[in-house]
Amino acid sequence: MTFLTIEGASKRYGAVAALDDVSLAVPAGSRTAIVGASGSGKTTLLRLIAGFEAPDAGRLTLDGAVLADGPAIVPAHRRGIGFVTQDGALFPHLTIAQNIGFGLERGLADRAVRIEALMRTVDLDPAMLERRPHQLSGGQQQRVALARALARQPRLMLLDEPFSALDTGLREATRKAVAAMLEAAGVTTILVTHDQTEALSFAHQVAVLSEGRLAQAGAPHELYRRPHDRRTALFLGEAVLMKGQAGVGWVDCALGRLPAGTHGHRGEVEIMLRPEQIRFTPVEEGAEQGCLARVVEVEFGGALRAVTVALISNGMKLRITGTGLELPPTGARVRLNVAGPAHVFDA
User: Fold this and answer.
1) Nearest residue to 147 via CA among 92, 94, 102
2) Phi, psi of 191 (to 5 degrees)
3) Which of 38, 66, 133, 261 lies deepest, with the highest CB count within 10 Å?
4) Can you tell me the distance from the alpha carbon of 233 to that of 241, in angstroms, rounded to the nearest whole number?
5) 327 SS3 class
6) In this structure, are residues 57 and 201 in contact, taking their beta carbons and an 8 Å threshold?
7) Burial class (CB in 10 A: 0-12, 13-18, 19+), 96
8) Rounded CA gap, 141 and 134, in Å?
9) Is the separation of the CB atoms in 179 and 122 below 8 Å?
10) CA–CA separation, 51 vs 75, rounded Å?
């Protein structure tokens, strides 16, 4: 069931179109990630949903109630929406208990009990309640900010790059914990991020914005494997792009004949492979069977590695990612094989 509906939302700042006719449906209880390059309109869209800005045109509804119809909007404080920013925006002069309870009525009989319960919900020790924000780690501060937002029992939670200030290990752990908490609470969530990996791992639905327009929206694996165009493909991760000749269910390219969903396309097309689809095996000098290449560069990155090869047939260079266990020497000859189908762009 659709919980939040955005229909034809547009917003301009002077001559700049921050958003141009964006439509998006967010299912109830789901997590949606909005991604895009800087200036693509991500934060503007989040602010329209929160009620901090009014659209110039378009309609927003939440659980059947109209939030905005063009410039006519419901004020932010009447929307029942939680908002967590990049830095958490905790009040430095208040204790953790006071920060979490900031939005709760002071006369509530069970106020202290609810604050302690919220601490446990975000997996923090209630013994921290008398500390100040500067006495907590970055990840703990973000959890406190989430607890404060949850205190008002929001119908919708908006997260504006809340993990970007954390180091890599803490960022991943915090993201997983927050996703689990929100799912357990049944809160519909929208995350804005510039981190593609974060979006793909956090969300049930990913929406890609490009220059103020919605380029594509769908399940993370669908967008990653079958993007509509090369810009979306390259934004969501590394991609091997090349020309090919399409037939019925196949495409001929520099890597040979590959299976592909050609969707009625014939003749010259542009195809995409994700680097992890390309595998290689060492071959002896003089072995000429299959698609051969020579290793020109090896990049070791711990658990992952990248190997750049040049095709023997035409010199085309391909960057192949994989586990750090596969480290062929520079200059070695390898045979390339492709796992899975190639993707043919729609246009």
Assistant:
1) 102
2) -110, 130
3) 133
4) 9
5) coil
6) no
7) buried
8) 8
9) no
10) 6
Pick one of 3.40.50.2300, 2.40.50.140, 1.10.443.10, 3.30.1340.10 as the CATH number of 278-342: 2.40.50.140
Residue type, 319: R
Options 1.10.10.650, 3.30.360.10, 3.40.50.2000, 3.40.50.300; which CATH number does 2-231 get?
Answer: 3.40.50.300
- Any idea which residue has 């960022």 for tokens? 171
